[in-house]
Amino acid sequence: MEIGSANVVIPIFFFALIILSAVFFTLLIRWLLISSSASRNQSAQMEAKLDRIIELLEEDKNR
């Protein structure tokens, strides 16, 4: 019984495809988590700036 080259190449190809898919999804999830964390930081900074503007407007109003 001879093993043809296709009988060896096709399983190796699919195994490599599964490994690459797992790596891709891992990197995608990591990128999404980092992106959402950065977005939260930007929101907090924007909120702090808006609070400062409101304080300044209230001080100006009270004068």
TrEMBL record:
The chain crosses the membrane at residues 12-33. InterPro entries: DUF4083. It holds the Pfam family DUF4083. Keywords: Membrane, Transmembrane, Transmembrane helix. It comes from the Bacteria. This is DUF4083 domain-containing protein. It comes from Gracilibacillus oryzae.
